[in-house]
Amino acid sequence: MRRFARVALLCLGCGVCSLLYGLSQLALSPEREPEPGGGRERQARDPGARRRAGNAGRGEAGAGRCKNLSVSFWNSYWMLPSDVCGMNCFWEAAFRYDYMKTHPSEKMHLAVVACGERLEETVTMLRSAIIFSIRPLHFHIFAEDQLHESFKNILDEFPYEGKANYTIYPITFPAEGAAEWKKLFKPCASQRLFLPLILKNVDSLLYVDTDILFLRPVDDIWSFLGKFNSTQIAAMAPEHEEPRIGWYNRFARHPYYGATGINSGVMLMNMTRIRRKYFKNDMTPVRLQWGEILMPLLKKYKLNITWGDQDLLNIMFFHNPESLYVFPCQWNYRPDHCIYGSNCKAAEEEGIFILHGNRGVYHDDKQPTFRAVYEAIKNYSFGDDLVHSLLQPLEVELQKTVHTYCGRVYKVFIKQLTKSIRDLYARRSKGR
């Protein structure tokens, strides 16, 4: 009997070893998805950058380790896409969480779509992201072909100090309905809908409109990814705080999220989750994935939507409200928050974190408060003292706008900016 027990134990041990060996072999040869073509990558102000230029999508994982840059704290190891794992990933899986706590993902991914006369506005947005952010950034710039060379020439001269690199992509839409997608709302605006399908190797992404200005580190909005619950795939801010001036609740002819809809000018996405999710909808009882639902939505609602792709996102999250994380209005502060009187309480208390100059307010005299912030960041020279070259001149200009509703609360425009500058100098003094 004792001999039989020994034999059984030996067989069990051999079986376990065989299983572990098989799983480790699977992990040694993961399937890799190629980076979409057409991109051009640059790393400015870095020795050897010119040699690496043009190699968009090159893997960044170290030999013999998992590809940590694509790993997210909020995704279970076994739910990660195939391109995440490298050599010995099976054996390292148990240690991944502890490793990630001490070695956070190095890069934050930020995407923007620029068409027409949006070059200067986009560059100013990128400048604001670079000034305050802590961790390195990767910019994914989708632009019309005639803008590519201009972007390259400008961005290659930025003194990044190793803080950012970029890839430039052409504007591309699915063959089916490409013409409709391109002209939907503003030129190229609907490109953002297809980012999860184009950037297949990017796990998480912050999309912003060209008329965005960061007044605090991108790291801070990026941290919302860690606050997503198990069902949330994206984060946006409400379209309005005050229903009496809301557009969706008064005029929309289609479903929309929440009481006043959502604004897609600042959109944080866990794209791995977006690609996996099956969405409830009002077109079929069958749930559809992201790539399957977009064209049917356009066909059904194209005569009823006013704001293009933003309306389609509202419809989608109306049917899937559990999938959206809503962040406060100071993360997407627009003229609507002050032109009829201040209605973003969070900004009044803490200041504006991200300024969104829609309605073209950076380029006319209708809202001089917004234009003053834009001009200050556009004209700031990297390396100059931020207090004397940006903050103080800006405050002088803002004080000239107190005859407007937004100017009356001009201090909310510099409250967080002041703190961001102070924090930046504190980090520098500590050598960070």
Automatic annotation (TrEMBL):
One of its GO terms (cellular component) is membrane. GO terms for molecular function: UDP-D-xylose:beta-D-glucoside alpha-1,3-D-xylosyltransferase activity. It comes from the Eukaryota. Glycosyltransferase which elongates the O-linked glucose attached to EGF-like repeats in the extracellular domain of Notch proteins by catalyzing the addition of xylose. Coiled coil: none annotated. It is found in: Membrane. Its main location: membrane. This is Glucoside xylosyltransferase 1. It comes from Mionectes macconnelli (McConnell's flycatcher). The gene is Gxylt1. Its EC number is 2.4.2.42. Residues 30-63 are annotated as: Disordered. One of its GO terms (biological process) is protein O-linked glycosylation via N-acetyl-galactosamine. Residues 30-49 have a biased composition (Basic and acidic residues). Keywords: Glycoprotein, Glycosyltransferase, Membrane, Signal, Signal-anchor, Transferase, Transmembrane, Transmembrane helix. Residues 1-19 form the signal peptide. Belongs to the glycosyltransferase 8 family. It is an enzyme of class 2 (transferase). It catalyses: 3-O-(beta-D-glucosyl)-L-seryl-[EGF-like domain protein] + UDP-alpha-D-xylose = 3-O-[alpha-D-xylosyl-(1->3)-beta-D-glucosyl]-L-seryl-[EGF-like domain protein] + UDP + H(+). It is a single-pass type II membrane protein.
